[in-house]
UniProtKB/TrEMBL annotation, chain A:
Pfam families: ABC_tran. Transmembrane segments: none annotated. GO terms for molecular function: ATP binding; ATP hydrolysis activity; transmembrane transporter activity. The lineage of its organism: Bacteria, Bacillati, Actinomycetota, Actinomycetes, Kitasatosporales. GO terms for cellular component: plasma membrane. PANTHER family: ABC TRANSPORTER RELATED (PTHR24220:SF685), IMPORT ATP-BINDING PROTEIN (PTHR24220). Gene3D superfamilies: P-loop containing nucleotide triphosphate hydrolases (3.40.50.300). InterPro entries: AAA+_ATPase, ABC_transporter-like_ATP-bd, ABC_transpr_LolD-like, MacB-like_ATP-bd, P-loop_NTPase. It comes from the Bacteria. Keywords: ATP-binding, Nucleotide-binding, Transport. Residues 9-228 form the ABC transporter domain. This is ABC transporter ATP-binding protein.
TrEMBL record, chain B:
InterPro entries: Tscrpt_reg_PadR_N, WH-like_DNA-bd_sf, WH_DNA-bd_sf. This is PadR family transcriptional regulator. Signal peptide: none annotated. Residues 7-77 form the Transcription regulator PadR N-terminal domain. It holds the Pfam family PadR. Gene3D superfamilies: Winged helix-like DNA-binding domain superfamily/Winged helix DNA-binding domain (1.10.10.10). It comes from Streptomyces mesophilus.
């Protein structure tokens, strides 16, 4: 099977085992630029494993992943990490901000790692913090902001490099529903405005309602609900 | 929803004409289902007959929409009572979806597929409501949230059932 036409990122027949556990057992995926796809399914079904494979963090045992016309397995480790830094953004449930850095330094970090000058990096970081309505927290340390605020800072950081794919694994998992929805609104608005694709792992229906479509993972197998009805 | 009580409540802040009442209702509560004029008149004539409103004046030109209604003391008491009485919680004890799941299991069909398809349908509706919420004002947000939380409750049940399908299959085929 080949990559669906026009998809930015796709995967065919992914398999990944941890010892005797088949985390992925023939999973498929594809996403277009500007699309938000929710990945749903029960706990332990393989959602995070799928996300890690798609992002080139974990190599699958079998199957192909194609990003922008290139197969991830054909790249060297160095090429894959360069790709992650330049083209991908990440938001996780918690514990992602560096506690010793201020919020604006955290947001600027990916740019700094890509070689940007401090001043320039922090200027860009601030514009993203404004969009996520946390620019007033620029000087604070992550330990001095609330969970919801910290998560918005993390979203700003994930978008600061202008990624073409944003990987979000339970980005609202630690937030109450009002904060969670606000984060989703800002995240999807920001992603849409830059035409980024969003791979959104969530078990919450109200969060998934911010997506354009969903796939369901069960026992390591994926089901694309778009083609069902 | 009790249209009578709602119209009465709208009259408490001052007398209104029939057309004005309809407009106020539609604006505040009738987002998806605006009132028909017929509903307004039949409701108002019932309230009139029961002494909960009185005609406060008639505009030139005639027609029921030109009548101006005012709430009476009895009407105010009625609104007060309605607001103070809690709504009966829905027991939600009969579920078509539960029946379908059991029948699928009994007939050897894939109940998991059935639940996936239902989730998808629910999410479709939830996306529409979420979109409306994003674009709407606070009233829109509250109305949509009410619907979204109910649909979410269905889906939580669905996920729990999906996780217990094997057990349920055993229970229904043994029973
Ligand atoms: N690093 C690992 N080492 C061993 N087993 C793993 C590892 N990562 C995942 N697994 C196993 O693979 C399966 C899929 O895990 P995964 O984290 O992808 O599930 P998930 O769908 O993200 O679950 P959750 O909703 O709980 O986050 C599970 O059985 C898990 O125990
Ligand atoms: Mg996970």
């Amino acid at each position: 099977m080949s990559a669906p036409a026009g998809s930015l990122l796709s995967a065919q027949d992914l398999r990944k085992a941890y010892g005797p556990t088949a985390a992925l057992d023939g999973a498929h995926f594809s996403i277009h630029a500007g699309e938000v796809v929710a990945v749903m399914g029960p706990s332990g079904s393989g959602k995070s494993t799928l996300l890690h494979c798609l992002a080139g963090i974990v190599p699958p045992d079998a199957g192909t992943i194609t990003y922008n016309g290139r197969e991830l397995s054909g790249m060297s480790d160095a090429e894959r990490s360069a790709l992650r830094r330049s083209d991908f953004g990440f938001v996780f449930q918690f514990g992602q901000l560096v506690p010793e850095l201020s919020c604006v330094e955290n947001v600027a970090l990916p740019l700094r790692l890509n070689g940007a000058k401090r001043k320039e990096a922090e200027r860009t970081a601030l514009t993203w913090m404004e969009r996520l309505e946390v620019d007033d927290l620029a000087k604070k340390r992550p330990g001095e902001v609330s969970g919801g605020q910290g998560q918005r800072v993390a979203v700003a950081r994930s978008l600061v490099t202008g990624p073409r794919v944003l990987f979000a694994d339970e980005p609202t998992g630690a937030l109450d529903s009002l904060n969670g929805e606000r984060v989703m609104q800002l995240l999807t608005d920001a992603a849409r405005s830059t035409n980024a694709a969003v791979v959104l792992v969530t078990h919450e229906a109200r969060v998934a309602a911010y997506s354009d479509r969903e796939i369901v993972v069960r026992d390591g197998k994926s089901r694309d609900m778009e083609h069902v009805l | 929803m009790s249209i009578g009580h709602t119209l009465l409540g709208l009259l408490e802040s001052g007398p209104r004409h029939g057309y004005d009442l309809k407009r106020a209702f539609d604006e505040k509560f009738g987002h998806d289902k605006p009132l028909h004029y017929g509903q307004v008149y039949s409701t108002m004539s019932r309230l009139l007959k029961n002494g909960l409103v009185e005609v406060d004046g008639v505009e030139a030109g005639g027609g029921p929409e030109r009548k101006r209604y005012a709430i009476t003391e009895a009407g105010i008491t009625d609104v007060q009572q309605w607001l103070a009485t809690p709504e009966k919680p829905e027991p939600y004890l009969s579920s078509t979806l539960y029946t379908k799941v059991v029948l699928a299991l009994l007939t050897g069909r894939d109940a998991g597929d059935l639940l996936d398809t239902q989730r998808s349908e629910h999410l479709r509706m939830m996306r529409i409501l979420t979109d409306r919420k994003r674009k709407g004002d606070l009233a829109d947000q509250l109305i949509c949230d009410h619907a979204l939380f109910h649909l979410e409750a269905d889906l939580r049940w669905l996920e729990l059932t999906a996780a217990r399908l094997d057990k349920l299959a055993k229970a229904v085929t043994e029973g």
